[in-house]
């Protein structure tokens, strides 16, 4: 039996796990995929919103603003990239100015600092590539950009180092309360991608005093296992373009247009790794695993950015991708203890601004659960996590010293991103290290450059096989049956610190 079981290892689940690991509790995280950050958290806009979008008084508004204010400290403690580049909501000729003013008033009520409406001349100085018919914008200097992979992985590694157990490739198939405890029925995940029915015949239970539901697009499924009050999540797909670093300075701020009923609209923004990201559109789908892109959706994104900016460098596109948002019909975050299921805690409907709100949600949920369980903080919690060294960002002198100490840092594997063998080895050997090509990619960006892993994959596969002591044919791209070379399934299931 454990004290707390967290279902879902996205950014919210990992933030809760890290904050809860401050307390004297036995904690596990159950994740249906092979790694953390494999759902909504891996494919989003990478934006830390200022907090002017959500209606005053909503959980979205309060957790967004608090989470935004925490980002400088959290990014330093956990050593991941974060930059306050500011955002602009641009209105064009013919747009309703009252909508821009409404966003401003919302932001003021929500406590967003530094908000102001700027006019055409100042807007052009800030963003010379804005379309000629732009007439005004809402400027939010507190908005920022982040790497969602790095942020989620950093939270997970710090939680792991503070004693949290993570169970991967495992689907929750049922939850039942017996004698005051929750019995969570689990199955190892096979080739079936459904969270509700997955896997092999290798079922097993996990018994916990408390359960935290952070299951993303499946959070309604998990909630509805225990509560008479039913929730309904609609997966909302959004498609993106990622542009080469040669286009990374086309805009300096995150550029939005006025929001619509489906979301905040299509944005253009620099990334913390100096690329340019464009998207997303919004399309509701019944398929909660549908992260495909379509020509129709991508054409919509392309047309929008071409309308908003002058001569956007769309020839510099290096990839497109899609992500899913967990839209719950009530329209706000559902956070807290379930009214008819004591010690069952929900984080449901965590769509945008979920990434921005995650630090605040983590603290809130940890404090709530610890108080309900009557436990205090432990003396040996370590809030510091050190990230993987980025050799390409070092000075020549620093890099030479690094290579002298370990020649693997002088062997470049991914030439597009300048990623060395030493960095890939670190991504595999460290706490919660990578076990797949995608796991390496999310930790050190090997394969994220212009050639999109076209040249570095074979060498990265060799390093993974060597470091994990497995045959080359057992290396996977991600999870389930994604073998690069067809072979039997080999899962890394339990990750627990000794």
CATH superfamily of the largest domain: FAD/NAD(P)-binding domain
Return residue spans where pLDDT drops below 50 for at least 5 consecutive residues: 191-201
Do you know the CATH architecture of the largest domain? Answer: 3-Layer(bba) Sandwich
Shape category: globular
User: Any idea of the CATH class of the largest domain?
Assistant: Alpha Beta
What proportion of the residues is helical, as a percent range? 25-40%
Helix and strand composition category: alpha+beta
Main beta sheet, described?
9 strands, mixed
Strand residue percentage = 15-25%
Q: On the 0-100 scale, what is the average pLDDT?
A: 94
The number of E-state strands comes to: 23
- Tally of separate helices: 12
Count of domain modules: 3
CATH topology of the largest domain: FAD/NAD(P)-binding domain
The N- to C-terminal Cα distance equals 18 Å
- The gyration radius over C-alpha positions equals 22 Å
Show the helix and strand layout.
Blueprint: E1 2-7, H1 11-20, E2 27-30, E3 47-48, H2 59-78, E4 82-83, E5 87-92, H3 97-110, E6 116-119, H4 120-126, E7 134-140, E8 144-146, H5 148-161, E9 165-167, E10 170-178, E11 181-188, E12 203-213, H6 219-224, E13 233-243, E14 254-257, E15 267-270, E16 276-279, E17 283-285, H7 295-308, E18 317-328, E19 334-337, E20 344-348, H8 354-373, H9 396-405, E21 412-414, E22 419-420, H10 421-429, H11 437-444, H12 457-468, E23 494-495
Parallel strand pairs: 1-2, 1-12, 2-9, 5-14, 12-20
Antiparallel strand pairs: 3-8, 4-8, 5-7, 6-7, 9-23, 10-11, 11-12, 13-16, 13-17, 13-18, 15-16, 19-20, 21-22
Helix pairs in contact: 1-5, 1-8, 2-8, 10-11, 10-12
């Amino acid at each position: 039996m454990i004290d707390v079981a967290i279902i879902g290892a996205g950014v919210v689940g990992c933030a809760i796990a890290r904050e809860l690991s401050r307390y004297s509790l036995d904690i596990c995280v159950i994740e249906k995929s092979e790694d953390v950050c494999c759902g909504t958290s891996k494919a989003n806009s990478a934006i830390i919103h200022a907090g002017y979008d959500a209606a005053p008084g909503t959980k979205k508004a309060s957790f967004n603003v608090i989470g935004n204010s925490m980002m400088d400290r959290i990014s330093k403690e956990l050593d991941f990239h974060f930059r306050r580049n500011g955002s602009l909501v641009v209105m064009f000729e013919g747009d309703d100015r009252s909508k821009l003013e409404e966003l401003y008033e919302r932001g003021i009520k929500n406590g967003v600092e530094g908000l102001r409406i700027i006019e055409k001349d100042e807007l052009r100085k800030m963003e010379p590539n804005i379309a000629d018919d732009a007439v005004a914008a809402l400027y939010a200097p507190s908005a920022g950009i982040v790497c969602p992979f790095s942020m989620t992985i950093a939270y997970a590694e710090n939680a792991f180092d503070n004693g949290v157990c993570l169970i991967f490739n495992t689907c929750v198939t049922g939850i039942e309360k017996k004698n005051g405890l929750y019995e969570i029925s689990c199955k190892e995940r096979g080739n079936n991608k459904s969270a509700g029915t997955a896997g092999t015949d290798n079922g097993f239970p996990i018994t916990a005093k408390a359960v935290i539901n952070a299951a993303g697009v499946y959070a309604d499924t998990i909630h509805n296992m225990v509560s008479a009050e039913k929730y309904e999540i609609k997966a909302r797909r959004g498609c993106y373009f990622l542009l080469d670093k040669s286009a990374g300075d086309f805009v300096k701020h995150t550029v939005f247009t006025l929001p619509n009923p489906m979301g905040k609209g299509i944005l253009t923004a620099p990334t913390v790794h100096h690329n340019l990201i464009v998207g997303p559109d919004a399309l509701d789908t019944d398929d909660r695993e549908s992260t495909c892109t379509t020509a129709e959706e991508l054409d919509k994104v392309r047309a929008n950015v071409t309308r908003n900016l002058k001569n956007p460098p769309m020839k510099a596109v290096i990839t497109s991708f899609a992500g899913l948002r967990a839209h719950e019909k009530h329209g706000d975050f559902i956070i807290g203890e379930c009214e008819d299921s004591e010690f069952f805690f929900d984080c449901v409907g965590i769509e945008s601004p979920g990434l921005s709100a995650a630090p605040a949600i983590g603290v809130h949920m940890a404090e709530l659960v610890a108080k309900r369980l009557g436990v205090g903080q432990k003396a040996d919690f370590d809030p510091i996590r050190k990230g993987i060294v980025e050799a390409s960002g070092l000075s020549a002198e620093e890099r030479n010293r690094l290579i002298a100490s370990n020649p693997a840092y002088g062997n470049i594997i991914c030439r597009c991103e300048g990623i060395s063998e030493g960095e890939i080895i670190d991504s595999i050997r460290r706490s919660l290290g990578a076990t797949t090509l995608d796991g390496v990619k999310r930790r050190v960006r090997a394969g994220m450059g212009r050639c999109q892993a076209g040249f570095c994959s074979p060498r990265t596969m060799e390093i993974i096989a060597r470091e994990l002591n497995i045959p080359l044919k057992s290396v996977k791209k991600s999870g389930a049956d994604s073998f690069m070379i067809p072979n039997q399934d080999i899962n890394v299931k339990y990750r627990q610190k000794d």
